[in-house]
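Hi everyone,

Forwarding the result from last night's run.
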Amino acid sequence: MNSIPAHIWRGGEKWMVNAAAGLHERGHTVICIGKKDAVWLDKAKTRGVTVKPMNIHADFSPIIISLLVAFFLKVKPDVLCCNFEKDVRLGGIAARIAGVRVIYVRKGLSLLCNKLRYRLAYKYFADRVLSPSQFIKDNFKQYTWLAQDRIDVVHNGVEIPDVSTFDRNKILSICNDTARPVLFGAGSLFWQKGFEYLIEAVSLLNKKGYYPHAVIAGEGDAAPYRELAVKFKVDNYIHFAGHRSDIPELMYGADIFVLSSIDEGLPNVVLEAMAVGTAVVASDAGGTKEIIDDGQNGYVVPVKSAVALAEKIELLLSDESLRSKIAKTGFDCVKEKFTIAKNVEGVERLFLKSLNTRHPL
């Protein structure tokens, strides 16, 4: 169950669709509940998953809860997996009334509040928490009311695309230039993504004579970042591509993928870049170090450090052999540890185990 606004399609929604489709392919009956006309429900439906659109308009509604109770009594699910605390307050209560055996909450970011409504929701209407990174689990230690043994970690997985159909030079059309190198960053234009540090890093690299273009793809207001690019005198080198459906192809065409984030769960974009064989420089946000072995399959730098980003980018730009080696090791890492199949296997294993071990409250 994911009651995110209908138009949004981000990492959490990708995870739900991939997990639902993967479990469906393994023979489980899966139903996705979300808002009417939700993009993620449409994508789940195209993967063969049954969907249940609902008019979910409030954080707490006896009417919505009663509709969910009736639905759960009809379909008799064994497990409910919620995306938001709102989903717990609606779906969790309904599931408890209807006798659903296990209620999971997936936490893609370490966002939790030490408020009464959260404590009550997690105590009475959620059995376990599913996290994509050990970082998030460790961060939750500050909430003493949420026991660590109730939190399970399953790393995200990504698709490994067929790059033989990709045009490596497609990204250059966004730059309006045929010159390389090209850096690439992807994510919604929110403060958590720290794109200001990538912009400043480009400025520092220009001063050393590299003059890289940087393409940033993602929805949101680019105006503040454009102003910053003007301030750093790199406005001719920073390009905002908006929402794109061809992110893997753009990643493939980039010389280096840069994660400049301040806060992450387990950054899918890092995995996606590695999966197309592009070298990565990433900030130490969230579970980044659970993916990158610094200096082996990528580079990890401190958060909020344009200087550190620029240093590692320069290292890779100045040594093509090293860049190729890092890219190859990164690809091998994803292929071995971070595929969608491995994620689905882990989720399935946890769900089945939880059905055998849950005790009544």
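The chain has a mean pLDDT of 95.

Cheers,
N.
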